[in-house]
Each structure stands twice: as structure tokens, then as C-alpha cells.
Amino acid sequence: QSPKDFRNKVASSCYTLVYSLLLQSIWQIKWIHATTSNENNNALFRKAILYDIFPKSSHRCSSHNDDDDDAATSSTVIDHTFTPSTSSLWNPQHAPFEEHAFLLRMIHKQGGEEGTDNPSQGWTLRLSQGGNIHSFVGPFGESVPPQYPPDSPWMDEVWQTVSVNLESGGNRNYPYYIHQAGTYLKDDVLAGKPFYSPSLGVYCEQNVCYTAAWGQNAHVPTIHTSP
């Protein structure tokens, strides 16, 4: 094999390698673009659906409200990453379940005079998967009970919507109560594994969050079927 043929083969191999790497890079860029596009589209879809369900928040709740002198110095942070709410004296037996219930938290800081923070008007709010409030901490401390009932960790003693079917709910053995938060741990299948109402969508912007969830029958087992 002559030196010229050898150089041609080396050059050809290099061209092939560069071409392969280029195709791989293009594929990765397309995959990243498609993933990002899908995430953006999903967010826009959730926004459209939730905006269609709920009315717009009052402009007086906005941090850009021109009528509020403190609005310019107030801020709200929305965090989707779970951290234990150590300031709340939860029942140690149920405290590990908070991570499974957690959806997001909103941390509000209210501005005071000359741009200083005013802790007396700040608060931290935590929402569960069902969109219900499972923790609300202000200057007064935690406002939600410590979750001592053995069969309802963040299922009952929370801020939530409850719907009762009066026609089917008259059966004392099989009540028909839809809980926004989730299902009591009265069935052996749920022992040590709470079933929180699944989140169907959440969209947050500025200092507002919209959520939708599939509320569950609080009492299981049951003879009732979903309508």
C-alpha cells in the first residue's frame, strides 16, 4: 500500500467520523427542540384548559397592582421542589407522607417601609396533589392541624372541597363523600400507602396557581361507582 493510498483511507475515515458526529449532533438538537416544544405546548394546553375552568384572579391580588403602595416591594416565589416543612409540628407517624402529598409551595414576602421585609405579613402555602391546602404558615405559625387521626394523613384535616351525594350517602356502611384531598386509609390495600387525589393539571404565573384534580371517594371499599 502506497503512502498516498494510506493517506486517502485515513482522510476517508476522518470524513466518515465527522459526518457521523455531525448527524448525531443534529439528532440531539432536534430531540432537545422537540422535547422543549412539547413541554411548552403542554404548559400552554394546561393554561388554556385551566383558564377555561376558573375565572381570572382579581387584579387586587396581583403584585403589579397600582392601587397598592406595597405591591412594588412584595414578591411571591412558587417552588415545585419538595422540602420538609420542619416548622410544622406534624404527627411523626405521618410526616413521611407529606412528600407524596406535596404538589407545590408558594412563599410570599410583603414589603414594608423603605423596601424592608415585613415578616408580619409574609406566609408560606403548600398545596397537595389534589390542589387542596395542606399547610399554611404565617406569623401565627402553622394553621393546619398536626394530622393525628391514624387513617387520614392530609386527607381530612386540611383545607379542601368535599362533595356529598345525598342520595347514595345515606348508607352508613358505604358513605359517598368525594374528598378533594384523597382516600382514607381504611382499606388494607392503602395501609402505609396513602392515595392522594391525582393532579390533572397545574399552571402558575406570577403569584397565582391554577390546579385541577380527580377527587376521590374518601371511604373505601365502596359499593358506589364513578358517575
A few lines on this structure:
With 227 residues, this protein is an alpha+beta fold. It has helices at residues 3-53, 98-101; strands at 75-79, 102-109, 123-128, 133-138, 141-142, 162-164, 177-179, 182-183, 195-196, 199-205, 208-213, 216-217.
Description:
By secondary structure, the protein is of the alpha+beta class. The chain is 24% helix and 23% strand. It is built from 2 helices and 12 strands, in the order αβαβββββββββββ. The protein has helices spanning 3-53, 98-101, and strands spanning 75-79, 102-109, 123-128, 133-138, 141-142, 162-164, 177-179, 182-183, 195-196, 199-205, 208-213, 216-217. Strands 1-2-3-4-5 form a 5-stranded antiparallel beta sheet. Strand 4 and strand 5 form a beta hairpin. The longest helix has 51 residues, at 3-53. The relative contact order is 0.13. Mean pLDDT is 78; it is low at 6-36.
Task: Provide key terms for this protein.
227 residues, alpha+beta, 5-stranded antiparallel beta sheet, 3-stranded antiparallel beta sheet, 24% helix
